[in-house]
């Protein structure tokens, strides 16, 4: 009896690492037969995450890694809310609708109060929906004209992988304009060359993944206007504003890229990137309700009420949407401008420091005029480098920094570049610490030149 009591006592009082539960390693690929104390399981699982990189030093990601304590509180408060249950949680639904209207207004929709849009899990889902609307509208146009609908194509510059997915899933030919020399984005001339009556739309990116640059939406739109006058082809534009949709309106308001251009029919953005919301929210908004084919909207009645839905997911957390709305109220236009301008400033500081090192040419300095707060650079031609960008990326990892190096897409696969994404939470002080480590890495390679450099694969390409 006493022995039994002692057993239980041990179980209750053992220090976690001295416990019987943790005196053995847990199985990794099958479920254990027996239960474990919650505290013990928690310790083991969260300890394993120490092996992940430190997200704040992850300069590859575009997504938020620093969040205000109030956002953490909102996420905890809303953990139990399914955003699809719009009848049960009408106020969360109302907040989502307000966010759509706030974005429509921010992007200068002519009819922001009545337009349509939706939250999504990110820009990938939002792009899928935007692309589908282009495809459906094109098919309707073709059918009305008695023309075939079997060979749709879409024109873009060097896009994020979500557009490759869209094209493959929907059997749309992707006419991706290749990079050429020092041109790393689309231009009007290259777009017009590729347009025909089977073009469902043109998709410029505001903040290209590889360099952070803004593609020239206005110039492309003007060229398509001219094309319409000459040839009668009316080609719509969808803007992938995953990052830029939340930056340009604040730090470069004079840039005309949004619904001020009548040809821009829809825009997607990532709330969890420069929208400053926690991971798991994106947005797609149409210029006006008429641009969203009714066919794509489903009405469901089994949640109570009759709810129109247009999204790929059904159940989804509501917290990110509430946090997005919190940011709108908390920061306002002025707050967003300040946060993003400080990121641009830090980017330009980094670009100057990197240029001073003598080894590199800056491709984009991350200033507000050229794109999002991202610095990208390449090795200078005609100078001896005792390292490659992949070696540098690998060396920086010894200090926890994740600064991606990768080769460009077609037709510049020969060109390796490196890139830093500056986000809220990566300030001037961290930037100066990073630069000290960057200089130290170069000094290291000056002393110990690399004889046999790593390949891109060996270095583990980890850009987005
Ligand atoms: C990040 C990104 C995407 C994908 O967005 P997610 O929110 O990660 O799904 C699409 N396009 C561009 C230009 C991006 O930067």
From TrEMBL:
**Entry annotated with the keyword Membrane:** no
Q: Name one GO molecular function term.
A: glutamate decarboxylase activity
Q: Does the keyword Ubl conjugation apply?
A: no
The UniProt entry's sequence similarity note says: Belongs to the group II decarboxylase family.
Question: Pfam families, from UniProt?
Answer: Pyridoxal_deC (PF00282)
Q: Which reaction does it catalyse?
A: L-glutamate + H(+) = 4-aminobutanoate + CO2
Q: Which UniProt keywords apply?
A: Decarboxylase, Lyase, Pyridoxal phosphate
* EC nos: 4.1.1.15
Species assigned in the record: Microbacterium psychrotolerans
User: What is this protein identified as?
Assistant: Glutamate decarboxylase
Question: Which coenzymes or cofactors are required?
Answer: pyridoxal 5'-phosphate
- Cross-referenced InterPro entries: Glutamate_decarboxylase, PyrdxlP-dep_de-COase, PyrdxlP-dep_Trfase, PyrdxlP-dep_Trfase_major
Annotated TM spans: none
